[in-house]
Amino acid sequence: MAGMRATITATAKQTRILIADEGGDRLIARLEPLSSAAHGRALPTLLEALALWHGEALSVVIYVDESFDWARSGLADALGFGLQTLFYQVEIVPLEASRRLRPKRLSGLGSFASERRRLG
User: Candidates 1.10.287, 1.10.20, 2.60.40, 3.30.420; correct CATH number of 5-119?
Assistant: First the structure.
């Protein structure tokens, strides 16, 4: 059985959470920014609860914009590396880096969807 995966996007305006496993999406949430969370352990506690519910550790990727203090998420150590606990393993990815992975597409001459499919 494949484990649960959590994808978290933290920006100055909101925090988006997607929890999924091999069966599909299990939880989605759009919350206030982490900076306005009532408690610094809110996000780690949520992930711990999901790991306990599911009975295995979660794989977590948190995407953060450059204006965000990663340590405020409760998922990073003092050096900015993702934590590894009994309940979850965290990888921290700058949001801009994830955006650069998409290829640039030119526009203005109509749809090239069939040509893109042929490229595979």
Answer: 3.30.420
